[in-house]
Every structure is written in C-alpha cells, then in structure tokens.
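Lab notebook, page 48
Experiment: co-folding of the full assembly
Goal: obtain a model of how the components sit together before planning crosslinking
Operator: M.T.
Materials (sequences as entered):
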Amino acid sequence: MSVKKYIPVAVLVAGVVLFQVACSFLGREYYLTQLTMASYYSLVILGLTVLMGYTGQISLGHAAFFAIGGYTSAVLTTVDLSAAAGSTALKAAVAAGLAAASKNAYGAETLIISPWAALVAAVCITIVIAFLIGIPILKLKGHYLAMATLGFGIIVYRIVLGARIFGEADGISDLPPFRIAGGLAVCGDPARRVENFYIAAVLVVAGVVLLMHLVDSRVGRALRSIHGSEEAASAMGVDTARYKLFVFVLSAVFACVAGVFLTHFNGGIGPSEAETMKSVSYVAIVAVGGMANLWGALVMGVLLNYLSLRGYFGSYDEFVFGGILIAIMMFMPEGLLRVELLRDLAGMPARIRKMIGSKNEG
Amino acid sequence: MPFEQLLQYIFSGITNGSIYAIVAIGFNIIYNTTGIINFAQGEFLMLGGMTAITLSAFLPLPVAILAAVIITSFIGALIDFIFIRRLKNPSVLNMVIITIGLSILIREIALHVWDEKVRSLPYFTGSEVTSINIMGAYISPQVLWVLGVSAVIVALLGTFFRFTVTGRSMRACASNMTAARLCGINTRNMVTISFMLSAAIGALAGCVVSPITQTQYDCGTSLAIKGFTVAILGGLGNSTGAVIGGIIIGLLEAFSISVMPLAYKDAIAIAVLLLILFVRPSGLFGKKEAAGLKEF
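Observation: model returned without errors.
Model output:
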C-alpha cells in the first residue's frame, strides 16, 4: 500500500486533533461527549460497510452484536465477587489480573471481573455467536437474508428485555470505569472528556486502517467479486461461504467492541441498543456513506449519529433515517458518497479547464 | 392439562393464527405480482385500525370500517405510484431497504398524527365482558368475528383469483411477468391493484383485531414479522399454505405461554422462522424447484 493511501488517515487524525483543540479553546468540550459516542457507533458502521457494501450481504441485526458486547461487559463487570473472595480460584484470578478491586456507586469496596477480561469474553462470545448464526444465515439471499438477520436481532432484543440477568427494561447501569493503562480510563466523567475522545478516535483510526488494508488485499478483492456475482466468484475458485462468514464475524466483532466501549463510556446499557430501529439506522448510514466506501461511511456515521445524539432531529429522528433510506435507494441506489462520484467531483476543475481551453481554441 | 384449558388455548391459537394468515396472504399478493416482500405490510393493519378508530367517533361502526379500508387501499396505491413504479430494475436489496424505510415513515407519521396512545375499536357485538361458552371454554364474540372475517377473505380471494379477469391477470403476472405483458396484460396496473388489495385486506384485519389486541402506532411491526414467518412456513406465494401455517404458529404461541414466560412469546415465532429458513426455505407446502427458480 502506497503512502498516498495514508493521506486520508492523516487528514482524519489532524481533524480529530483540530476539533478537540477548537472545542477546548472555545470552552465547548461538551460537544466531545456526543462525538465520542458517535465515534463508537461509527465503528459498527465501518464493520457493516465491509459486509454490506463490499460483500453485498445485508444485515438487519447488527445492533444485536453491539448489545451482545455491551451486555456481556456490563454483566461481568457489575457482578460483585467479594462474597467469594476467599476461594482459591478467585485469588488466582486476582493474581492474573482477571479480577480487580473496585468501588460501586455507593463507595463500597467490591471485587469485580476486570473490564479487560470482560472485553475478551465479550469478543469471544460474539465470535462464537456470529460464527454459529452465520453458517446457516449466510446461505440465504435477498429477502430471506434480510428477514433472518432481522429475526436474529429481534430474538436478542426480546432476551435482553425479558431476562432478569440483563436488567429487563431498565438495562444495566453503574458500570465501573474501564482502566486501559495507567490513569487512562473509559468512563463518562466529564473531567475525562478529552482523553475519552482520543480513546474513541484511536479505536476508529485503528479500525479504519485495518479495514483499508483488508479491502485492498486479496481478501478484499474476493469479497468484491462475491458482491458482483456469487456464482462467478465461486467459479473463479473463491470460497464464497468462507469469505462471507469471515466478514460477518469480523463486522460482528467491530460492533461488539463498539458496544463494550460505549457501554463503559455511558456507564450503562439498556434494551433500546438492541432495537431493530438501531440496526436499520446503521444500514441507512452505510447506504448514505456510499455502500462500498469506508471513508464515506465514517464521515456519515460520525455526522448523522452526532446530529441524532445532540437531538437536532427532535421527535423526527426515526423519520429522518427512514427518509434517508428511501431517498438514497430511489435516486442513488449505489449510495450517496460513492467513490466514483467523488472521483468525478475531484476531476471536475480539470475538466472545466479543459472545456474552457477547447472553447478558446475553437 | 384439563380439556377446557386445552380448548381455551386452541381457540386463542386459532384466533391469532387466522390474523397471521391474513397478514401472510397480504404478503403473498404483493410477492406474487412483484417479487417484493413488502416489509410495510404490518403498517397497513395499523393504518386501517387507527383510521377506523378515528372515523368511528362520528360515523357508525360499519361505515367507519369500510371508509378505513378504502382509505388504506388508496394509501397502498399511492405507495406504488410514488415509490415502486419509479424504480428501474431494482435489486432485491434495494427493495428490502425501501419497504423498510416506508414502514418507518408510515409509523412515524402515524405517531405524529395519532400520538402514542393505545386505542381500540368497540367490540362489534356485545362488550369486553360478553363471552360465549363452547364446551367449557369461554371466548369473546369478537373471536368469532375474527374467524368469520378471515374465512370470508380467504374465500373471496380464492374466487377473485380464479373467476375474474383481473384476478386471472394477476395470477398470470405471478407465473411469468414477461409472458403476461406479451398477452396484453397491463402489468403495472396489476402491481397497483395488488398493493391496493393487500392494503385493503390488511386494513380490514386491523379493524377486526383492534378490539382484542388494541391498536398503537407501532403495532404493525410484530404482526408483519409473524405474518412473514407464516408466509414462509406455508411456502411463499401459497395462500392455502398461509392459512395452515398461520394456525400452526398461532397454536405454537398459545401453548408456549404455558411453558415459557410471556416475554418470550414473540421470540417463538421468530425462532420457528429461522429454523424454517435454515432447514427448508421453500416452506412446508412450497415446491423445492419453484423456490430454486425465484431469486430470494
């Protein structure tokens, strides 16, 4: 991959730093809170872009993977183990760093599973679920695939809404901060807004770089061939089932990681994160972002989530996402920020110059 | 389980099942002429119920229901005119996304028109407390209305598709769009009619169940998913299959309550849906070859 490919990454990093400096300078750091949340959501969207845009497989159940990540972490890190503190297994866990002392919302000493261990557990659970559900689901196409993923999402929603362990309609709150290293922690403390913004930004940049490489690799070309025609890809020797499953699991892991971090940042999670409408809005954003365009998806993911979180759409929030879906599909079924369209726009000045030049000559 | 209780469960299962069957038939009508699964099908039920409730404030009940059915079928036609007709060679993915977008739009408009209160039509005969004793099980007369209306809809549709020119033209579209066009059938109008018919049936179903299940701006979604499950179970496009599938799902749900918490009732139908999709996507009564030919 050439250095040129990294120009957008550099622009992104510069934009992140500039925005933070501007916000701090103007005393508007509260903007960073929603921007951090929007960044985590766009992590889900990045994963979904590779699945939907590049591979052509729709998923109307990605909110479920987000919820699986968030809820796994929430359950594991809020269970107080101090009652069993004497057991040898737990002592070994503390020694290995899998469990750590913490304080709950009332200031009492508790012993909890370390968020790092919870993150690993959440990712593992997501991989297993995505793998098991992916094998049969990805055999389906079109309507059936859409309905099956939608159905999976609804089952997860029903389970988190109905199960006592997941807090039913109240969800789970009072999560401990996620200490990454040293004093760095993912939490909703307003004093730590700036560092949290950077944690989210680092994750997003890492995610986008990873996917950039993936898309530009042999795997990426295989994925695009599946989008073009599954039969043709298969005839050319691409193991379509394996590649589709790989992307499905990968995008699920992206959603799961976003879920874990956002849940720690918000200090809690509720069943609304697993709602079908969430999944649909992710799909809408991928469509607006240009389907097979990581950067478009990222820009739109951050922008639309940010506007939605800041409440600019008021009570018309779902209306906006529904309207976007229809408008894009009717007028630009290839997506709004398409790579070709952007290239056309970028080439516009040169073409105009050429046109003017040829006129002058004539 | 005592016999009376068993009977009670069976009645409740068949009632819900016949509603699911009607929703499934609505899916089938549009699917047969266009190859589209209309994800906004549940919204037709909600619109029908809500319109009838509003109109029933100043119109007699039968007139209000009739008006609601007509209004909803016009909305169905409007959807076809504004959105579906304009699409040129849409992919299945596009159609799925558009109809999902439509269902969101309709739901949100309904929320802003009618707010989020739960409403219901009055019972067609008697009241909430009227009940009929059938061999020890107690059922509301509204249940008989639901069963009766479902049966009439199925019978009328059967006649329509078999004995009228329009109905036959629609069946021609279903089996081969190009051949139908070559025979001089205006296939575009058939699509419009299928949307109107499907919306009208949905609206009627929405009115009949309103006294039992209540109507709210977002009540369409779960009905649509059950209806889709039933349509798949019975074999997509197969109306007889839809009726049998509907009763199977209805009974499964009714009996699931006796072994599982009520909160998971919706998950049952969807688990069945996933199972069918994984094991036998052509459904119980669909032909394997036919399923292989159509693009899903």
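Interpretation: Residues 131 and 141 of chain B are 6 Å apart (CA to CA).
Next step: discuss with group before ordering constructs.
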